[in-house]
Amino acid sequence: RAGRELEVAVVAPDLRHMMIVTHDVTERRRVDDMRRDFVANVSHELRTPLTVISGFLNMEVDAGKLPPEMLEHHRQLMLEQATRMRSLLDDLLLLSSLENKDESDDADAEVIAMPKLIEDVVREGKALSLGRHHITLEAEDISLIGDADEIRSAAMNLVSNAVRYTPEGGSIAVAWKRAGMGAALSVKDTGIGIEAKHIPRLTERFYRVDKGRSRDTGGTGLGLAIVKHVLRRNGGELLIESTPGKGSTFTMMFPESRIFSEDF
Ligand code: ADP
């Protein structure tokens, strides 16, 4: 069959009989390829900052005494690279712990006061934006049933992406509202937007539209993969709408079964 990969073995139990055994190994190959790509990506992402750090350290050892301003500048750059490695490792650990938890083993189910959680996330978003964006928040008094740490980290990823992919002077609107019988947390920005062809792949690990921009703004390429896993474990879904040059809206949708109602 087209596009499928078969492993063929010829088995001859005796001289007069012969069997041809085939196995469809398409899926196994796909998983192997993904694993190989992942290891290559992680290695590359860690190697770059390490190369920068060891480069500066070597320069200092070789050059002997350098002017203090230069040393200070090197230290600053090394610190940036160390921070980048740290964020990558933090995201990798979070992603692997989300993946390791059996998918059938639901996330912690606590009642989350969402307005408070979103307020905290928006406060952190403002700290990242440093006044460069107009950030607004609108939250209805709806509680969600789920794992608060996981939901907070997914929401934070969406807000930090909005900050990182929106040029100075742009707006970011965060809203938590009823949507149908359930509720939705949306993060809408007036940023650079995303071409339609990239949208289906954004939640893949290390998939980025523009690697340079992602790295320069402190991205690890794992944020939306984390969001996808969190939503899968907490009964939600991610909706992405975007227009290049105009902006994007990322929405986490939760069904009615995940909304806490006092009437029960
Ligand atoms: P990264 O650390 O690279 O931001 P993510 O997994 O969070 O990784 O996002 C994957 C890619 O999706 C980003 O590299 C970027 O190209 C695109 N993206 C995510 N959020 C936005 C946004 N709000 N506006 C434009 N592009 C975005």
From TrEMBL:
One of its GO terms (biological process) is cellular response to phosphate starvation. It is a multi-pass membrane protein. The chain holds residues 175 to 438 of 438 of the full protein. GO terms for cellular component: plasma membrane. Residues 41-258 form the Histidine kinase domain. Its EC number is 2.7.13.3. It comes from the Bacteria. It catalyses: ATP + protein L-histidine = ADP + protein N-phospho-L-histidine. The keyword Ligase does not apply. One of its GO terms (molecular function) is ATP binding. Keywords: ATP-binding, Cell membrane, Kinase, Membrane, Nucleotide-binding, Phosphoprotein, Transferase, Transmembrane, Transmembrane helix, Transport, Two-component regulatory system. It comes from Sutterella seckii. It is found in: Cell inner membrane. Its main location: membrane. This is histidine kinase.
